[in-house]
Amino acid sequence: MTPHRNGSTGVSEFLLNCFVRSPTWQLWLSLPLSILFLVAMGANAVLLITIWLEASLHQPMYYLLSLLSLLDIVLCLTVIPKVLVIFWFDLKSISFDACFLQMYIINCFYAMESCTFMVMAYDRYVAICHPLRYPSIITERFVAKAAAFILARNGIVTVTLPILSSRLNYCGRNIIENCICANLSVSKLSCDDVTINRILQFAGGWTLLGSDLILIFLSYGLILRAVLRLKAEGAMAKALSTCGSHFILILFFSTVLLVFVLTHMMKKKVSPDVPVLLNVLHNVIPAALNPIVYGVRTQEIKQGIQRLLKKGW
Question: Where is the G-protein coupled receptors family 1 profile domain (predicted)?
């Protein structure tokens, strides 16, 4: 035991009990998780390098896509290597400070990813509903302001929760029934009243992610209405194809979050390992899918990758 920063007697480290009730899960999950991690890191790296080196991709939409890739890389690196170390070497310990840093990064970068999807949805709305005004609205300056807003809003709002959780008195209890330092998994170990933590988690999540999703679906609703009015031959198919990849990824992102919330609400009817599994997978599957879907469905990116490969040869 070591003294806490707030002066109470607490713990110097936590132990992540990752699928201890189902040890076979660790074995079976380690292989696909490793593959997904390598795909996510490799695909996002290729996408970033392609956008950086290809002058034709130096456009606002691709800058937003670069931001999304950076967020995915950080989320993957924050969670997956530690989970694999637990699976392979049974190294469950995580220091007190590292645990709350991980909590902050996960909360903050989830919110930033959601906010980035919202800005990308607005980009597509302007491109399809106001095509003539697109070059004057979606500029590099707009992207810079949007990036600053994404970083500032989510960086500031999400910092309260890990700070409050770190100030709790843990009374020597340090075994987290999770693979990551999720707020509710950590704070319930405390001897203090954690009602405020729960309220902040609920209010913050629905305020940030909920408002983003409302604006995202509003944008795509307006896009769909505009697309249905298009008379030119092939214009509707082209517009839907342009937005298709964006909407697929946003829908997957929001669906996984919704399933995660529902499993927490019905935790008495669902195995405790299910929300833990969703927690882990949500840090790697979207990160692996985002660059692949964009790479396959966006002709400019596909051509940029092909040009880079030819130069490499």
Answer: 43-294
Alpha carbon distances (Å) from 176 to 2, 12, 23: 18, 14, 16
pLDDT tens figures, 280-308: 888 898 899 888 887 767 788 888 888 88
Nearest to 79 by CA among 33, 17, 15: 33
Torsion of CA 251, 256, 257, 258, to 10 degrees: 80
Residue 223 domain-assigned (yes or no): yes
User: Residues 44, 98, 84, 265: what is their CA dihedral angle, to the nearest 10 degrees?
Assistant: -90
- Region 177-194 average pLDDT: 90
Task: For residues 75 and 158, give the distance between their C-alpha atoms in angstroms, rounded to a whole number.
Answer: 15
Q: Is residue 66 part of a domain?
A: yes
- In angstroms, the CA 141 to CA 175 distance is 47
Cα–Cα separations (whole angstroms), residue 213 to 85, 122, 192, 198, 247:
34, 12, 34, 21, 11
Q: In the chain, how many domains are there?
A: 1
- Tell me the CATH number at 118: 1.20.1070.10
The rounded distance, in Å, linking the Cα atoms of 199 and 183 is 12
Q: Which residue has the tokens 């899960």?
A: 25
pTM of the predicted structure, to 2 decimals: 0.89
Residue 143 in this model has a pLDDT that exceeds 90? yes
The whole domain housing 21 covers 13-312
